[in-house]
## 1
Amino acid sequence: MSEHSAYRPQSAFMQWLERRLPIAGLVHSSFIVYPTPRNLNYWWTFGGILSFMLGVQIITGIVLAMHYTPHVDYAFNSVESIMRDVNYGWLLRYLHANGASFFFIAVYAHIIRGMYYGSYKEPREVLWILGVILFLLMIVTGFMGYVLPWGQMSFWAATVITNLFSAFPVVGDPVVTWLWGGYAVGNPTLNRFYSLHYLLPFIIAGVVVLHIWALHMVGQNNPTGVEPKTPKDTVAFTPYATVKDAFFIAVFCLFYAWFVFYIPNYLGHSDNYIMANPGQTPTHIVPEWYYLPFYAILRAIPSKLLGVCALLASILLLAFLPWLDTSRVRSANYRPLFRQFLIVWFLVVIGLGYLGSQPPEGGYVIAARVLTAYYFIFLLIILPLLGLFEKTKPLPNSISEAVLREGLPAGASAPPPGGARG
Amino acid sequence: MNHTRGIVLAFGLAVSLSALGARAALAQEQEIPPKQHWSFAGPFGLYDPAQLQRGFKIYKEVCSNCHSIKLLAFRNLADPGGPGFTEAQAAAIAAGYQITDGPNDQGEMFQRSGKLADHFPPPFPNDQAARAALGGKLPPDMSVLAKARSVERGFPWFIFDAFTQYQEDGPDYIHAILNGYEDHPPAGVTLPPGAEYNKYFPGHAIGMPKPLNDGQVQYTDGTPMTVDQYGRDVAAFLMWVAEPTLDARKRLGFQVFVFLIVLSGLLYFTKRMVWYEVKHQS
Ligand code: HEM
């Protein structure tokens, strides 16, 4: 973006390199002098946390893969031998299994931030859509990873989820057979899931590059939703954002370490310590916690086909948010009605998550239907209409003005301005 | 009114609720096993080697007649963070077992006495043989049994568990099963042939005959020889079998925590210094 102080290499070698491959200049302009709004709060650190977690997953995953055997007869025991016989294998595995959960915690925080502050709006549509693609890729990667230890939940989750495709008329059954590589989930399925589970994180890394590229074209949004106008509105990425991100990554790691070292199996399911047995269905088949809201939507719809469509729609609709939301004001801080509907929507997603973990019976089904209805009504009806009717609050003229009015230090975890005060 | 607080709350709730819901799956009508005191509970809890040795004795004398532990090697008995046998003791235990090896140069399988590197031999050659001997019921392998059973805690307990670090529901359940036999099932309950009534087993009709009775296994260190105590000892042993690296994990965990707290503190003050001017300008 604007007023970058150009990169001037100091050493002879760096000058030599810069004329041939301006990589240091790229790093300099993207991560050193890159201007970031001065009023960002800690919700903006989750992008850094996500990059960090992707690195953790790739590094622990590569080492796990050195010891893992993708075969129905050996997979379960090979994971156990990682836990027992590989030096620090227990650490690698618990970091990786809990890392997936913390990756999702970070991505949900990141999405909540984007929705609350309207970061998907013009000119950030492509950036946002790339984010939805990353979320989809993570879902697929996590699902395939969960199958690898070949426990009871691995096997039955794979069976239930791949079977969803059979809901589609005509092509359904052949597609499922093709996915399985046979007539049931078996060794060919495990092998291809392993192959894809190894591949997809690198595709994710590639899309992350596009995501950051798009970000650097349009710049970051901020809690006011007002674009930076003068250099007074921004600070340099380094040291300001770097040190803040580093601090919050350390705090996030504390939270992560609590799970890895003290309650490593808390987020998992005990049935996954039973080797996969195609002849014995577990009493309840539940996916990992991060899929539960979508699982609840799937089961809320009585027809299997429509349920699958609703499940897909619930994620894909997010990509259309820039057009579903017709308001020109970005931040929820200046949109009192939107803010309320949105917070209710977040609570509804939590509620769906809870219902997804419960058996699909009686009151749970009815509750799941009501919440599913709100999920879609918010996205498809409330959002478009709000933009037309809502009376928004006056926006500050600039970020600096908002910071001054707030009287709070920029960069601290300042509550966004507006609200009762505004 | 503070917006951020609202979202933080909503988000925290979201994560905890849905995260934990995943656990809320096992057996709905399950009787809740009473919580026991475990030396390995909590952030500093470690295994008690004496207890693991007693538990091993019970496994060896009783449970191993039906249950295998295929993933346990004799050498593990001398591993740090385990029952604390010396290597010589572990080798002596191994030597007491006959292991099928081979084929030899004549192409035949043969028997030899066990070595440290061998795994515990299973009591039955295969699942079918086990079923045939035990009225059609299969005794599960015990390698990870203590982690493969859990207790449905329900809302809101599962949230507290994340803070209190309650991770011992598996051993609690095993202890409860061993103490849950009742001679006479409650009125109106008929058991299938060969099954016994167990208060804590899902569905109550268990295919395992009551394995332990008071005084059955001899303790030489003065520990009470009751089913209650036996149950705790063998459950602790099975927890070690399922999670042999727990001691190492908690020790490293403490070091990591100290490191991360210091690092976060330093980064926090660095951040304040870096941002000082931005905060106080204009
Ligand atoms: C996008 C990042 C990734 C996510 C979200 C993810 C997720 C997962 C999950 C949920 C599991 C099951 C853990 C368990 O229950 O034990 C798993 C296992 C596994 N993953 Fe990944 N993973 C990622 C990246 C990778 C990478 C880059 C590799 C290798 C290059 C890898 C290799 C493995 C292996 C070998 C296993 C089986 C061992 C085990 O169960 O611990 N993963 N992954």
## 2
Amino acid sequence: MSNTDFVLAVEDLTVSFDGFKAIDALNLYVNQGELRVIIGPNGAGKTTLLDLICGKTRASSGSIKFKNHEMTKLAEHKIVRSGIGRKFQTPSIYENLSVFKNLEVSFPRGRGVFGALAFKCSDDVKERVQSVATEIGLEGSLDMEAGLLSHGQKQWLEIGMLLMQDPELLMLDEPIAGMSAREREVTADLLKRICKNRSMIVIEHDMAFVAQIADKVTVMHQGKILAEGSMDKVQNDPKVIDVYLGH
Amino acid sequence: MISKLLSSLKTWIDQRGLNGFIILAILLAVVFPLAMDSFRLNLVGKYLTYGFVAIGLVMAWGYGGVLSLGQGVFFGLGGYAMAMFLKLEASDPISTKIQSTPGIPDFMDWNQITALPIWWEPFRHLPFALLAVLVVPTLLAFIISFAMFKRRVGGVYFAIITQAVALILTVLIIGQQGYTGGVNGITDLKTMLGWDTRTNSAKYILYFVTVALLLASIYGCQWIQKSKLGTLLLAMRDKEDRVRFSGYDVAMFKVFAFCLAAFLSAIGGALFTLQVGFMSASFVGIVPSIEMVIFAAVGGRMSLVGAVYGTLLVNFGKTYFSESFPDLWLFLMAALFIGVVMAFPDGLAGLWESHIKGWLARGRAALRKPKNPDAPPSQIVQPDADVMTMQEIGSPPLARSASGSPRVPSGAGMQVSGIQGQSA
Ligand SMILES: Nc1ncnc2c1ncn2[C@@H]1O[C@H](COP(=O)(O)OP(=O)(O)OP(=O)(O)O)[C@@H](O)[C@H]1O
Ligand SMILES: [Mg+2]
């Protein structure tokens, strides 16, 4: 058991589904303020890794430490409350609620049953909704039903919902999937802005996008880490080239 | 002056969406008492006690997505707690002096029980009995739902468990005849703290008490629906994982919805006992529990007011048809349920929203001469393609389609995927 300065320390993490090891003795360390990108071919286990960190899937063995606290046994909502936010691969927003409500509901106050009953949308909440909406470019659509947003806007809204919680570690699963070239650029800017005072893990396939945002890149393959380092180093790694060409 | 007051009252009502509530209140508190004889009114009063169950189901099933097929359990427990108090008051030593053990309920005496069981003792006191009406069913609901939802048992499995509980409780009540009155139930209830509940005037008063409590419950539920908790319940039905991974303990919100439904059902049960004068196992089991779901489904599981109308309609139908064609009623009921669920998933309230309201509005609009027949074209802003900002990319194609209030999933929502300002 290591006591480290890392925000996130994943050690010897393994999960198997009926004998198939989707994550296999994996180690991953993320620094304070780092923006880490995880890449890898389909089925490499990237989403599963995020599932494990946020508690959606339970590890078969190994440890996940967030700010030196063990997360593997914690209930999902407690993991979130300790400061880990996670965006899903498909945009996951409340389609029938307005954009405002989507953001308001994500505000980290009144999270218990009776807290939620007593919750008032006070001025500080409204202010926060406004500022987050401006950050994600949806300040003009606050009253709109979220289901009517474009695909890209939905992705931004979900990022905004996470920003409402101001998490110390933000994990995004393929945030630009299905976006146009312009939207991708805007999203890259957004990610660069919001990673200022937090750590981030981003899963992405688009190499141009990865090169634009990443501090450090981790390549996963068959539940293991294949390579890790700067974008240049990783791109020229023969093992990585092999895996991607072999696909 | 008065018209100004009235119009400001009207906007106050409109803002809070209280129109339906007020119409229902007038119907129940003014129209029915004026139009009906005391026999019919008492009948409505009885139906309204099922209304508590129905609005509870709107909260648990419609909003919380928790379908319970065992609400009879909570209705029954509330009713029994009330009946136990009334029975003890009716079983004073003088009026029961012909029994071999005077002073205990008659059915105990018939079952060779010679002393009041200790767990019956506290029910001599009305405050305790009232507390038991509210607490016992809610606590049982808490235990069941906490155990299930914390283990992520949900949906159909939960519904089956509630059925099992209904069955178990029925068997228990019928089997423990000496303590519960068995199949006959607890009957011959007479007075509450000396007040004879069987007289006509008492029935009137009880009717109004029922109406007042039902309206208060609806108001309270509407308040909950508008709170963050109500929003969360809707959000959970849409994307449960998103709610969970926003830091909410989803299970506890479902537990709350289920406990609330149990609590309301119990109030209905107690009022039933008071108005009808008995309580028996026939309100606890599987069939009555499913009937109660039908009330809510017919009225509309997303509408509190609708659920009350559904309850009244189905019960009037039941009374009418089961008098005329007793054998047919069950089939009719089943057909009604299937028909409603298949054709009108949002029940009467949904029909009202989608058909009648629009029809009325169109009729009204046709009567009024339109001032400018052409609706203003929706504003489409062409952003400057050179300067690319997020706001422009994100500018909503349908700026006027805003609807702030949460809407029932209808599948009719337009999909807009075009992004403006993309000419480059
Ligand atoms: N709950 C589960 N049960 C069984 N197998 C699973 C489960 N979750 C994931 N897997 C398997 O684990 C492997 C890794 O899946 P994962 O979704 O993590 O891949 P990924 O790297 O995110 O791929 P993609 O790029 O397609 O999103 C896949 O082979 C998948 O079939
Ligand atoms: Mg994935």
## 3
Amino acid sequence: MHIIKLNNVSKSYLEDKKKLQVLKSINLTVEEGEFVAITGTSGCGKSTLLHLIGLLDSPDSGEINLAGESCNSISNMEIFRNRNIGFIFQFHYLLDDFTALENVMIPLLVQGYKKAEAVKLASEVIISLGIGQRMHHFPNQLSGGEEQRIAIARAIVTKPKILLADEPSGNLDEETTQNVISILRDLNKKGLTIIFVTHDLNLVKEDDSHYTIKEGKLIQA
Amino acid sequence: MKGVLALYWVTLKRLKSSSWGKNSLFMIIGIIIAVGTLTLSMILFESYEKTLVNAFKVAQPDILINHNYMLTEGNQEELESILDAYKSEIMAIEQKQRISVIINRGDSNKPAYIESFSEDNTNFNQLMYSFTKQKDFHLSDNEIILGEYLAKELNVQVGEEVNVIIPSSIRYSIFGLVKKAEKFLVRDIERTGLYEIDVYRAIVNKSRVELLVGDNDSGISTYLLLNDRSQDNSRLVAGELNRIFMNRLPQVQAFDLISKNSVIFSALSLQKVMIFLILCIIVIVASFNVISTVSTIIIEKINEIGILMTLGLKRKEIKFIYFTFSLILAHIGIVIGLILGYGSAYWLTSQDYFSLKGDIYFIDKILINPSALMFLTIYITTIFVISTTIFLSLRNINKLEIISIMRQ
Ligand SMILES: Nc1ncnc2c1ncn2[C@@H]1O[C@H](COP(=O)(O)OP(=O)(O)OP(=O)(O)O)[C@@H](O)[C@H]1O
Ligand SMILES: [Mg+2]
């Protein structure tokens, strides 16, 4: 089954009254369990594509299907997003006022989990990512790699079907990058569909479905 | 709402965190000043009103039945039988005579009036006069009790003598003016708190008053003290009495305390409303502060808002979080403002320099005694104004788009 299907998706922005066509008739099919790598020069539209797939933004034209549902027919976008999609961003975007554990608990609480349950599930995920000893620390007490791993934990704690990662290693040193990427690879092996945006070609493997965006078109690399 | 638990948790967390910022502090201080000023002024004014009403009550009967002259025996019986029907309402009753006099001591002459005092009417006296506190109080015929300010103006102390001159006794003769002056010993000095009474009233035993006036029976009226001393009740009873008097004793009229001083009281309540409205403007000004604080909070926390959105919170729910958060901050300001306003009202009135001019304000000292209703009114008004402001400021969140937040 296709977990993600994009049909002639186009997206443009208005900048200074000039239309900037970022994506032109994009077609993309992703199977469950695929690891998709998207590369391309800065400003080519990688993040834009990811935001469209993640339903954070809507296309000018074309259709997006996620987990068999057309995104036009989804009535409660927020809940759908919370259930099916996990996000990781380049800048870790943890909430500063909350401990690592609490950050990971929030999506669960939004789903209506009881606090005790949320604590249990969140700490399990944090421990599985090897940072159990840091879970009661606040973001500013964590290293960049630790923060990113907490962000991954928060993205996967609700067991989404799709994980969207927008340059998750962009801000990390080489060793930490390897660590974070290997976590993503592990998750993918366990069946999670991942779309991974990067400009570092070294992080892309042979087996990945590798695309690149050029002049608004998505090309198989 | 599914994530209600999460929302409360997030909100409470935000309160504990150290990231309140200077802005929140300014907002709270602004609210404290506005609410404090409003509370202080309203407490002072309300307490003034209450103290004044109370002073009126202490110093005057609930109902005054005016007949000016001694009633004929028949009419007196008629009045008694009318009042008899109100026996259960009336706590104490006395017919008193008042005469205008001039009181003299040394070089000072002061206009005053003498009010007759019946020693046997202990029930009445204990309610009306503080100098009767001691048991079996006895006022001799040559003794006089002066109001506080009257005594002050005459510069006389307890135990000293004054002369009382009755203007109607002044006669012209070939030797010039002949004044009949009677000597009295000042037995006590009475303070009711009501300036008008404390500056004019002198109290003398009834038998002596009768001797003083001879066959002059002007200035006689009947004083009633009711069991239920509320203003509403006095007005009610006075109204009923007047309806009866109209048919049976046309020359007699009953006045209750409030109607007698109705101009003062209606002016006071109008003023109270005006002061409240004017001071509400301060609260509105303080809420401009709220607008800027909430807007700054939104800008400062824009990342957080973006993350919460990607995590599945609706704008509505995010607004709820920040609304609750801001309202709790505002609440702190309101409560502190109320307490500070109350405290400073107490402190101010306990200072010596804060005393009113009795001849302008009727009373010279305010007893702080605010009502729960007033606190509630201030609280509800300020909460309403401030939460409306917060709500309006938070509408900016509607315009936020996740992607533009995340791109920053
Ligand atoms: N909300 C927006 N309004 C106007 N222009 C936008 C908006 N979002 C993106 N763009 C423009 O669209 C183009 C693609 O942006 P996008 O962020 O998708 O690029 P990217 O491939 O992710 O780049 P990078 O590698 O630097 O992250 C850029 O030229 C950008 O300026
Ligand atoms: Mg990007």
